[in-house]
């Protein structure tokens, strides 16, 4: 399962379309702000009844989010035993070098800038899927 943390409806639709186009058929859960992402991951709020034994295989995390930005979400993830080793790919349009440095400093596994062109974006998603779901050895469940 993939947790897509994305507030922009157009980027959400592009990501879902690119996943489908590249036959990445994993279930995708979408969180539209940082607080909603943490509520999902820690079973709070509207997600209080969700099965906490099922965690994402991959988190695609935007940085510029309402309520709580992606870097703060990452900080919370890495501080908790239940989520500290979940694979997190920052998927953002930010070109700020400090975001790149902060993302890796906080424990992101990868940092990908969203290409503007759909075919390039689709190719980036294809490569992400190939790497994270075929080549990469996932960490054991905590």
Reading the helices and strands in chain order gives: EHEHEHEHEH
Poorly predicted regions: none
Our Rg estimate from Cα atoms comes to 14 Å
- Count, helices: 5
pLDDT averaged residue by residue: 91
- Alpha-carbon distance between the termini? 16 Å
At the first level of CATH, what is the class? Alpha Beta
Summing up helix and strand content along with how strands pair, one would put the structural category as: alpha/beta
- Helical proportion? 40-55%
Quick one: biggest sheet? 5 strands, parallel
Number of domains: 1
Number of strands: 5
Question: What is the assigned CATH homologous superfamily?
Answer: Response regulator
Q: Strands of the largest sheet, in order across it?
A: 2-1-3-4-5
- In the CATH hierarchy, the third-tier topology is known as Rossmann fold
CATH architecture: 3-Layer(aba) Sandwich
Overall form:
globular
The proportion of residues in beta strands is 5-15%
